[in-house]
């Protein structure tokens, strides 16, 4: 169900010759990252070797779709705008699964006498239904745990892969709500399905907004880190406690050794040693 997303275990973002929405998110976010901060994330098998990552990006950029996408990015503002669009697009799960139904375009559904494709139902009908919806109130009612207060605990591309796989599974569940003959005939959506999809759409909009805020906060951390690095200033690292422990392991024996050496020198040093050895 995760066509065009990461292969489990290998963290590759494309099938051969296929450029996915996830590829675009990862490729665009990469433009704003700082290498020194990227090294702070736990390493996956894919991102462990810098050469492997370089070869991967070269392969990705060689795809015709990727070249066409990069031609659209004329400025930093374009890059940031498209990144926000792509991550915010997580409220549309069908966009994240090509499958055999062309994102739902090949499936015809009927809702309250109106016949549309499954793709258009999610793309147009549901957004219009929620046009005046109080999403802020819904977030308070559901007591959402705001993810944008959290830092990424994994490499950004791995986070995007997790999100993409999650949305692809949601798309599979949407197809699963339809009868088996959905690909061959027009399907009348029941009230139960419409209500279920409405609640799902609301939760996806809230989740997409939170993840957009989380990604923008992470991007801002990379920018601050790069500015500080450029001006020779240190910046708070996400693994400060770990680095402090490593530094203590190095500092304690070093400091004790220097103190012993200074004490030895203060007590006469080499001359005292010669007298002790009666040389």
Automatic annotation (TrEMBL):
GO terms for biological process: DNA catabolic process. GO terms for molecular function: endonuclease activity; hydrolase activity, acting on ester bonds; metal ion binding; nucleic acid binding. Keywords: Disulfide bond, Endonuclease, Glycoprotein, Hydrolase, Membrane, Metal-binding, Nuclease, Transmembrane, Transmembrane helix. The chain crosses the membrane at residues 12-29, 244-261. The keyword RNA-binding does not apply. InterPro entries: PLipase_C/P1_nuclease_dom_sf, S1/P1nuclease. The keyword Transmembrane applies. Belongs to the nuclease type I family. This is Uncharacterized protein. It comes from Effrenium voratum.
